Amino acid sequence: MHVIFFSDFRFDKIIAKEIPSNIIYEDEKVLAFHDINPQAPVHVLVIPKFRDGLTGLGKAEPRHGEILGHLLYAAKVVAEKEGIVDGFRVVINNGPGACQSVYHLHLHVLGGRQMKWPPG
Fold first, then answer.
1. Helix and strand totals (H; E) in the chain
2. How large is the average pLDDT for residues 58-87?
3. Overall domain count for the chain
């Protein structure tokens, strides 16, 4: 059974600073903060500040291209800030079959240990 740690609206409250979080990076488009249930020594979530219908990667449309690219750039910035730029993984879970538990697109930036392959 997969435990849900965040609701979709909790991300909105984190963006609005109504719920405290350990913010690593923020700009006008994205917010990055430490996951409350880390799966690696470094586990940061990177989320767009505006969903714009982008509840999961499977909902992406051409109009989302800029924010998708910006999310990946933000993941690189997070990796630099966390000292893992030479070895990190970016994960996006899409849909129930991939254990997506929050329907607000988000990237997991994982590092600080040797990653295994294959991942799934």
1. 2, 5
2. 97
3. 1
List the CATH number of the domain containing 107: 3.30.428.10
Can 108 be counted among the known catalytic residues? Answer: no
Mean pLDDT of the region 24-52:
96
Q: Catalytic residue, from 43, 104, 106, 108: name it.
A: 106
Does the residue 118 lie in any domain? no
Q: pLDDT confidence of 109, banded at 50, 70, 90?
A: very high
Residue 120 in this model has a pLDDT that exceeds 80: no
Q: Could you list the residue range(s) of the whole structural domain that residue 73 is in?
A: 8-111
Largest Cα span, the chain: 38
